[in-house]
Every structure is written in structure tokens, then in C-alpha cells.
Amino acid sequence: MPLSYDLNKIKFATDDATFQRGVGLYESGQVTEVEAFGGHYSAIVQGTKSYRVSISGRRYQDADCTCYLGERGTLCKHVVALALHAVMEGKPLKAEEKQQVAEIKCSDKRELLNKDELVAVKKAISESMKYIKPYLGPSRTWFANQDSLQEGCNRLRARISELPVNRQTADLLVKLLLRLEKKLMGGVDDSNGIVGGLMGEIVNILEVYAQRDVECIKAFKPLCGIATTSFNWEDSLVRLYDEKRH
């Protein structure tokens, strides 16, 4: 049975500390006695001592580990290490594959995206947005919903950090902010500030865009005169637009 997750899924759905520790175990050869059967994997992973780990081929988070975190149902580095072994089949990780984007970065690129690149970016954004969904259901599913929000935001951070700085991408990011605002107004439970935190980062990066290319400020026009937003995130961008206009 083929795996239903890949390296990106593991990266974006795992917190940075746990992911990096899992990478360390995988790269140092601590995943041993690996067995695959019926879409499931099991192994001995060496940590402070030897732990028996098993994961599902459908969701790597559906796992068992004999460490103290695993016994409490918490995702641990041993599970991540085995999941990495499953998707990489023992092959080494490249430097960029080991890096997570904890905060949006501004690229040094300036060129416009061509038609195919623009389509690909829009598709990646739409795919990431699917993880940012309303919380519907019993309280026991709340944590899974919050994990989904975090994964969606992490995917967006990585994609935004690759974008060139120009009016074209500024337009994309303003539209993304408005889509995220609509999500917040549509039942997304952001009590942990996961989506709001991402939106704050996008606003900050747009301010950097405005410093590097004043044409980007024109992209802020759709934010002028809109109804009050969830936390007035648009204020600084509207102010930049008003200052440029006058």
C-alpha cells in the first residue's frame, strides 16, 4: 500500500523542534529493524534507550511509541524519525528538505512570475487554504482542527517566502489576506492565534515589499474602505496607501 503522506506533509504538520529531533535520529542511523506490512511500519528507534515504534501508512500521526510521550498520545521524535525513513526509504535528506519556515521571509527575487508560475502559485495557495477550515464537531476533535490550521499556515509561509517582490505578488498577498479574513469570519476557531499570526506576518512582509518597490503600495487599494476586520490588520497598509496617494 503506497503512503498517503510525503516529506512535505511531515514537515508542515510537525512542530519545528520535534521535526528537527526526528531528522537527527533518522540521519544518525537510529531507525533500525524496520519492517513494513499491510501499509504499516514498525521499527526500533534508539533514543535515550531503545523504543518500539509503529506508524500507519495513511497518517503518520496514527502511531504508537513506547517512549513516555508516545504513551501519552503525543507525537514524538521517534515517530517522526520512522516516518522520515518510510518516505525517504533510507536515502539522505537534502539541506533544503530539512528546513522549516517558522516565519515568512522576504526573497531577493524581483522578476515577474510567468503564466505557468503564477498558476502554480495560485494552486499551491488554494491547496494550503484547504487546511484552514472551520471547527465543526465535538471537543475531542478540536486539537486536530488546530493542527490542521497550523499545517495550512506553515504551507503558506513556505510558499510566500519563495515569491519575488513586485506588484504582481503584492496583489496576490492582499487577496490572500482577504481570503483569510473571510475564513476567520466563517467559523475558523483562531483562539490560539494561529491564523492571525500568519496574517500579521503577511502584513509585515507587504510593508517590506512597499519599501523595496513603491509600486507594491498600489496593491493595497482594495483594503481602503472595507468594513472593520477581525483585528484591524489592514490599518498600516491603508495608511501607506493614503500617504502614497497624497
Domain count: the total is 2
Main β-sheet, spatial strand arrangement = 1-2-3-4
Elements, N to C (H/E): HHEEEEHHHHHH
Low-confidence stretches: none
Specify the helix fraction band.
40-55%
The main pleated sheet reads as: 4 strands, antiparallel
- How would you describe the shape? elongated
- The number of distinct helices, counting runs of at least 4 residues, comes to 8
Strand content: 5-15%
Give the N-to-C terminal Cα separation: 62 Å
Count of distinct strands: 4
Q: Which secondary-structure class do the elements indicate?
A: alpha+beta
Q: What is the residue-mean pLDDT, rounded to a whole number?
A: 94
Gyration radius (Cα, Å) is 21 Å
Topology:
Blueprint: H1 7-13, H2 16-27, E1 31-37, E2 40-46, E3 50-56, E4 63-65, H3 77-88, H4 115-129, H5 142-161, H6 167-185, H7 194-212, H8 235-245
Antiparallel strand pairs: 1-2, 2-3, 3-4
Describe this protein's structure.
With 246 residues, this protein is α+β, with helices and mostly antiparallel strands. It has two domains: 7-98, no CATH class; 115-245, no CATH class. 47% of the residues lie in helices and 10% in strands. It has eight helices and four strands; from the N terminus they run H-H-E-E-E-E-H-H-H-H-H-H. The chain has helices spanning 7-13, 16-27, 77-88, 115-129, 142-161, 167-185, 194-212, 235-245, and strands at residues 31-37, 40-46, 50-56, 63-65. A four-stranded antiparallel beta sheet has the order 1-2-3-4, covered by helices on one side. Helix 2 (16-27) crosses helix 3 (77-88), helix 4 runs antiparallel to helix 5 (142-161) and helix 5 runs parallel beside helix 7 (194-212). The model has no long low-confidence stretch (mean pLDDT 94).
